[in-house]
Amino acid sequence: MHAPLQRPLVPFLLALLLTGAARAEGDVGSAPEANLDGPAAPVAVDRSRLHFDAGPGGVWVRGRTNKARFADDGCTYVPFLGSSAPRNFPVRFELVTAEVDGVALELEPAPRVARDGERVMIERGPVRAIYDVALESIEQSFALHAAGTSGDAVLRLRVETELAVRRDGEGLRFGNELGAVLYSGAVALDGAGRRVSVPVEIVEGGIALRVPGAFLARAEGEILVDPIVSTYAVDVFTGDQAHPDTAYSRVGGAYVSVFEEVFSSADRDVYCVARDALTGDVDGGAYIELGTGDWTDPSIAVADGAGVALVVATVADATPPSLEGRIWDLTADDVLGDSFGILGLAAPLSRVDVGGTSDAAADPAFLVVAEADFGTDRDVVGVTLSSSGAVRSTIGIASIASNDSFLPAVSESTGDPLLANRWNVAFADEELATGIHSVYVAKFDETGSLVGTLGQVLLGLPEPVGALDVSDLIDGPDGTPEYLVVFSTMFSGLNETLLVRVQGTTSSLAIQSLPLLEHAPLDVTPFAPRLATTDDRYLVAYYDVDAGSGLMQPVVSVLDPVGDDLLAVAVRRLLVDPAGPGPDFAGKGGIAIASGFSGGLFVDDWCGVVFERQTAQGVDLFGATVEPIPEKSVAWQFCWGTENRTGDRGFLRVTGGDVGVQSEAACGRGAAAAAVRLAGRRDRGGGRADGGGR
């Protein structure tokens, strides 16, 4: 039996330094100039600072090269071994026993975790674990009374990992074919500068660190033991950003974007970034999720009157896949509270989209729509939430057992409050008995109530719908509120993208082919079209995909509604990024667009576009600002069926006032010729017809 220690006790510190993967970050470089308001700028995670997130599962931190969790079960260090790693390979260190001079210390069974700035502490009673976090390392110290004793001080740590362990000099190596975590031998130092080696011992279930009693007996002041944990990766492919979405916020006048950051193939984090709408400078950012959950396909919308954004994503590793949301305070540039479940159904949920409110005077709210897979068919479901995330009402938008309803989309906002202040919803549908495909639309108010009836705007499609989006309400040419639906499908073996002008939910004003309307080259196909609006015109962003070369280029077109049933091109296939993805593009083809109009800036014509670009580091996201030309097209264009020397078909843009249009013949892909007759008067300034290619 050992007598209790009588002399003054000096804290004993064991420090563990964890260092992240040797991943080349660097600057991605500036994008080349485009025909836009300045060059495209990177939309990326802020790697100049640490990102913390605290919740029921502990405190998470994301540095440049790793992530870590601090909780009652110790420190879980997750090295970055490349975005192509099939999953994470964490190493968990947990203090299980501590003894000094043969006397076991009674550790607190219910540890307390606290954070103070960049330091996290786990209190274990007589032992305190201290973690000092830096951008590329974590220093772990264990403080306990030990100096001046004659016996050894021994700390035993449980180590859990999938990585194979072997000796590496005085330390250890935890590794696989992707890389390794190196745990070096330790050195103990006291306050006078004396030092002694502390080899790492492999014990059953973990490791032990033993500081010799002879050293402790003459030690002075603080004792520090420093084993080093470092990581190297075989493949540091950094193409880890995908699936962007964007919205406009009047808080700071910024485009707020959300995207996936791929830590491994089974761990996708979600990050938000705010970019000044005028300068493109980054105004702030925050992780919505940075743990080991697999969040994918995020969507974002802004509640203008509350100064907050809602981000919703699919949690792919949940059983079944579910939806999680989190509120981002745009004023404080930080998340509000923990994430919360949305639409807790037993069926897998995916294809989520969210719309916000653009009226600062209205009660701020969000509408979330998603696809629920019940095995034999899919339904479209929705829920309205307050600006704090509280549920207001759940909505069964489409739930017919004999139909397969899928690909839901909701407008970015409720639009101009002077028009209707409603969300527009669109979705695809298939009658299971007949195989007939359709597109439906609906309108909902802020309470979640259906306004009018569910409408079928297009019936009898022979092939399924592959991509779909719906715009905010705008003021139509005759003063009647209208909106636009865009979707992709197949016709006669060709990829087709169609545009539908809609009033209410039952009146389809026009159905036009986007490639035909723009007179695009015959071998170019629009991919992943997305919509935005100003107060009286539509903007569509998509990837131009060349069937021959495989080249993908992000472009934006501006469309003006004319007459009762047509669209006219004001800006035609504006190339947003000349350095766009090539044939070897490894990204998802994600693109997003938002305008100031959707964020409550109803006199603004500018829009922000976020898109993927292949860089030397992999696939990264970039953003650009587009200012549409002020002149509106007032007549539908016509084209000739044969390509000109630039690869385009003939194109005519008409600007001016009060020009009516009567179509004599439609121009289709491969059509021999088409013509329109322009009738009406020109204003005093005169109309102008612009011909030419891209």
Largest β-sheet summary: 12 strands, mixed
Q: Find the structural class using helix and strand composition.
A: mainly beta
What is the average per-residue confidence, as pLDDT, rounded to a whole number? 80
Count of runs of 4 or more consecutive helical residues: 2
Q: What proportion of the residues form beta strands (DSSP E)?
A: over 45%
Q: Total strand count, please?
A: 54
How does the overall form come out from the CA principal axes?
elongated
Could you explain the architecture of this structure?
- The protein is elongated.
- The protein has 694 residues and is an all-beta fold.
- Strands 1, 9, 10, 11, 12, 14, 15, 16, 17, 18, 21 and 22 form a twelve-stranded mixed sheet that branches.
Could you give a short description of this structure?
Helix content is 1%, strand content 54%.
